[in-house]
Amino acid sequence: MRIAATFLALVAGVAALDVWLNWFDNKCRDANSVRCKSLAPNVCCTVSRAHRRRGNPFSSIEFRDVPRAWKIEARGYRGDDCRMRQDTRAMRGSLKLCLDHGAFSGAGYGFLAERAVGAEGCSSSVRPSILSFSDGPQYNITDLDDDLLDVAALGGRSMDVPQKFDANRIDEAL
Ligand SMILES: *[C@@H]1O[C@H](CO)[C@@H](O)[C@H](O)[C@H]1NC(C)=O
User: Fold this and answer.
1) Of the four listed, 52, 61, 100, 174, which is most buried by Cβ atoms within 10 Å?
2) In the record, which residues are listed under signal peptide (predicted)?
């Protein structure tokens, strides 16, 4: 089983799964959100403690573009570096799923046929690379370490983003 799941992951292209962490909306709809694109299995997608403010700021987590052949466990966490499991659901043959039993600090997933790595299933952490505002515009936050996340975390809209971040705006919707 272990080999089969890993093989399927390779065939489908490990680059396929996107995870969205949503502020304010517990049904994965039109929220300000941050996204980990092409998240690898057993990796925690989370933002820094400074950017989490009250600890577990995300109300829902959406798993998107999951290859239909994948059988995975979608995991929502609370605490630093995905320390504690908050919500878990199995996905078998569905393209997307919304975890809505927050609040969350981050998310990850693992193949159902494999044993989880570590106590809660994460071997490492990554930061999201894309910030999306509920009114549409998206920003590349790969190399940013400051106020842009705060604008979104406080419920701002894209019009509230300081001009200095114009260069980080992504023109095509991803
Ligand atoms: C975001 O920026 C990084 C480097 O600053 C770049 O490597 C990456 O391709 C960009 N991603 C998108 C989606 O524009």
Assistant:
1) 61
2) 1-16
Residue nearest to atom 10 of ligand 1 (CA): 140
CA–CA gap between residue 19 and residue 22 (Å, rounded): 10
Distance from chain centroid for Cα 142: 14
- Largest separation between any pair of C-alpha atoms in the chain: 51
Q: How many A from CA of 129 to the centre of ligand 1? A: 8
What is the structure's pLDDT at 7? 55
Tell me the one-letter amino acid at 89.
R
Contact (CB, 8 A) for 98 and 60: yes
Q: Is the beta carbon of 140 within 6 A of some atom in ligand 1?
A: yes
What is the reported pTM?
0.87
Structure tokens at 56: 């577990």
CB atoms within 10 A of CB 147: 12
Phi, psi of 7 (to 5 degrees): -60, -45
In the chain, count H helices and then E strands.
3, 12
- Per-residue pLDDT, 32: 95
Paired strand residues for 61: 21, 99
Enumerate residue ranges in the chain where pLDDT < 50. Answer: 1, 15
**Distance from C-alpha of 131 to C-alpha of 147, rounded to nearest angstrom:** 12
